[in-house]
Specification:
The protein has about 170 residues and is an all-alpha fold. The chain has helices spanning about 5-20, 25-40, 45-50, 55-70, 80-95, 100-115, 120-130, 140-160. The protein is about 65% helix and about 0% strand. The longest helix is centred in the C-terminal third of the chain and has 21 residues, at about 140-160. It is elongated and about 55 Å long.
């Protein structure tokens, strides 16, 4: 079972990724369920976790802000720089966890933000380097992968995961 901090961080990351269109609303509902199982609890979190896949597309927009607020977490507007940076950091954490390959991280960042988001500018540049490697060989790819990994570590270290405490409002025992 994940710790409450890990569950809160995952919920916050999924909220950020959902807000910019990277993942479906049902993934946010799954994270809410996982947070409950990990020991986080609030009325809004329970309602969010109870959404069906069909309801998620309509209801997450309304339910997520309250659930996050009750847990002391934040949902930045997707178009804000803070919201975009939260999504970049969430993607970087996914890459470091092995859920994305380094080139997939740079591709997503470059496609979504290009060189317009200062925090992610180096990742966009590294995506361009991958594009120039058509005939560069495996050694060059390994070097760029290492640079992407180092940049992802830097991004996630600058803004570490969130911390939340279980509220003790009850729940499944």
């Amino acid at each position: 079972m994940p710790s409450t901090d890990a569950a809160a961080s995952e919920l916050q990351d999924r909220a950020a990724l959902w807000s910019v269109g990277e993942i479906p609303a049902s993934d946010v509902v799954s994270a809410a369920c996982d947070a409950l199982v990990a020991g986080l609890d609030s009325p809004g979190l329970r309602v969010l976790a109870a959404c069906t896949r069909a309801e998620a597309n309509y209801d997450v927009h309304f339910l997520l802000p309250e659930a996050l607020d009750e847990l002391g977490l934040v949902l930045h507007p997707a178009t804000s720089e803070a919201g975009q940076e939260a999504a970049v950091r969430a993607l970087a954490r996914r890459m470091l966890a092995g859920e994305l390959k380094p080139w997939e991280l740079t591709f997503r960042i470059n496609q979504r933000y290009g060189n317009e988001l200062p925090l992610a500018e180096r990742l966009a540049e590294l995506d361009d380097e991958y594009a120039f490697l058509e005939y560069g060989g495996d050694t060059a790819v390994v070097q760029i992968d290492a640079e992407v990994t180092a940049e992802a570590r830097r991004l996630t270290a600058v803004h570490p995961r969130v911390h939340a405490e279980p509220t003790g409002l009850g729940g499944c025992d």
